[in-house]
Amino acid sequence: AGGGGRFDSPGKGRGLRVTRGFAVGELVLCSPAYSFVLSGEERGSRCEFCFTKKEKLARCGKCKKASYCNAKCQKGDWAMHKLECSAMMAFKENWCPSEISRLVARILAKKKERCVSEKILLIDDIQSHVEDVDNEKRERNEAEVAGLHRFFSKHLEFPDHKDLLALISQVACNGFTIEDDELSHLGTALYPDVALINHSCLPSAIVTYDGTAAQVRAVRNMEPGDEVLISYIDLMYPTDDRNNRLRESYYFTCDCRDCKSKSGDKAKLRVRKRSDPVEPQAIGNMVRYARKTVREFRAVKHIKNILELLEMCEQSLEEMGSIFEDANVYMVHVMYQAMGVCLYMEDPEGALRYGEKIIKHYR
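Predicted structure:
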């Protein structure tokens, strides 16, 4: 929006700061994606090019999989869709590259061009943290390399193995999840200029999406010279959880005022009031149980059947409810998952029951 510039942020490395004042809600930066890909789960219900949701979309005449609003959108997407079109027909039900592999393939297909999304930061200058990747992630990245060669070798010339691993790490660490107004996952994209923005658990801006374009808007008033800061993670969780996630995904810990003071943790980890107060050790054990439950649910939600997932939610809510209040963030998290399961099961009464419990704590 003509009011930001790159600078060296103390303790953070490169960053973005404003060169004029911005009021709450004002657009700080708007960036088209360098490259983007629609999630496989959304294929058929949204346009592959603009992500518009429509009932009547025109399917690709060749693969019959990709859908578009009109001929203009289909033509605009062809340079990218051709990477997948013939492969989907050839592999049929065995065509299963990951979303990251699909995005990396698209980046490779256009990497010779400088894009309008690189006004401040070039894609080659995005940090990869490849030297920080642990063995588990290294194995996962090697699997992505194998998938790229299997599904996209017909249309792409690949860089050497080391450079390809670095690009996969760049995308894994700097890719953005495109979401709709209900925060549902629509796809993944890379925005080099937006990737320049550093994290804080006390952000000054938020990233939203207009189709496939990223919009950075102020969530507090900013003065000239202030750094633009966004949150890379869900801020609902207590300090230790947030920093564990930051270390796992982005290889740093946050030292913002909120993380140093842990001032919000008590309210997020509310414990039931009882005549015999809960022992600190019992609270600690339940927090560990809750974290384990959240991790396990994420790991199995695409594997277990829907009734098993609902039972998992109900059992963990009963266990945690013996110590935690309903307003505890772990209780809210599991109730939200249970609501989603009920919606998937087309059980509106169950979804409403959980939804009413959740919304009380957001008022």
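Summary: The CA atoms of residues 140 and 248 lie 14 Å apart.
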